[in-house]
Amino acid sequence: MLSIVTPAYNEAASLPALYARLTAALAGLEWEWIVVDDHSADDTFSRIQAIARNDSKVHGYRLARNCGSHAAIACGLDHARGNAAAVMAADLQDPPEMLPDLLARWKDGAQVVWAARQRAPKTSRVYYLLMRRVPGLDTMPPAGVGLFLIDRAVIEAFRQFREQHTSILALIAWMGFRQATVAGRQEARQHGHSGWTLRKKVALLVDSVTAFTYTPIRLMTYLGFATALLGFLYAGFVIIHAIRGAPMAGWASLMVVVLVIGGIQMLMMVVLGEYLWRALDESRRRPRYLIEDTTERGNTD
Question: Global pTM?
Answer without folding.
Answer: 0.69
